[in-house]
Amino acid sequence: MYPARFEYHAPQSVDEALTILERYGDEGKVLAGGQSLIPLMKLRFASPKALVDINRIGGLDSIQEDNGFLSIGALVRHKDCERSDALKGRYGVLGDAAPQISDPIVRNLGTVVGSLAHADPQGDWGSALLAVGAQLEVASSGGTRTIPLDELFQGPFTTSLQPNEIATAVQIPDPGARAGGTYLKLERKVGDYATVGVAVHLAFDNGTVGRAGIALTGVGHRNLRAEAAEAAIVGAELNDDTIKAAAELAAEAAQPRSDERGSADYKRSVVRVFTERGLRKAAETAQAA
Ligand SMILES: Cc1cc2nc3c(=O)[nH]c(=O)nc-3n(C[C@H](O)[C@H](O)[C@H](O)COP(=O)(O)OP(=O)(O)OC[C@H]3O[C@@H](n4cnc5c(N)ncnc54)[C@H](O)[C@@H]3O)c2cc1C
Questions:
Q1: Is any atom of ligand 1 closer than 6 Å to the C-beta of 37?
Q2: From ligand 1's centre to the CA of 61, what distance in Å?
Q3: Bridge-partner residues for 185, per DSSP?
Q4: Does ligand 1 have an atom closer than 6 angstroms to the CB of 160?
Q5: CB–CB of 137/170 below 8 Å?
Q6: Which residues, 6+ apart, have CB-to-CB distance to 216 below 8 Å?
Q7: pLDDT by residue (tens digit) across 36-94?
Q8: Which atom, in ligand 1's list, is nearest to the CA of 191?
């Protein structure tokens, strides 16, 4: 099917894009990689009056460390993350997630920030970036604001972004010298959405866990943080007992539903196994950092 008729704008600056968005209210849509929006338009699940294509705006395509944050711009593609040295080691959960997203065609065009704005509960970036405690940098004609990811995801395909706002970057706080993480994803075949995904990120402070991030994909109505599991290991030494206890709590935090990808019990059990495996791998990476 073809999309419904729409107007197309290709502004050259964020300010210009914001002025156009303001004009259309909730009938305008930002176009980034188009990997989610265009299929929705073709199926007529979305029929925006206007598309504001941000691909010609300069300065949104870099990954850089600045002011205590690692910043991933709104035009950074999945493939850029796959190839970036900045997303290894301390930010390993992000580097591990990137190559597990779909196939090379989607990874060449789709953006990290677009994934967050799309808020698919089966999106991999949502969990990876919740685990590292990220925030979204957002611009509107009224100024800029930041939205912690915990406050961004409201439900399936629903965020706290307003129609007149553009997310310009996602920012990750520097986790310190001893940090590491990983993203484990179970998929039915290569390129599929997650049956279950578990993101783990750990930052160590004098041998104990200073900060823990554990987030789950595909087992809830949005990407979920396993907060009780995180709390159970903060301040603790990681050993078999604490790892197993945290994995149990993560499984309890999951809200899976039985579907064609597997039963709810099976998915919960995968969360337990992946959390345990993820914590061991994150600790190993952090020791090597
Ligand atoms: C076949 C296929 C398989 C896929 N498999 C996976 C997978 O395994 N894992 C996974 O995580 N994802 C998967 N995806 C989704 C993919 O990651 C998309 O790239 C991503 O969801 C959207 O990013 P985008 O840049 O293409 O956004 P677009 O499609 O351009 O936009 C998506 C939504 O976000 C809004 N938006 C985009 N950028 C901004 C911005 N800067 N500010 C405000 N709003 C914005 C748009 O208005 C739109 O509502 C798959 C997609 C396809 C087509």
A1: yes
A2: 16
A3: 197
A4: no
A5: yes
A6: 127, 196, 197, 198, 199, 223, 224, 225, 226, 250, 253, 254, 271
A7: 999 999 999 999 999 999 999 999 999 999 899 999 999 999 999 999 999 999 999 99
A8: 8
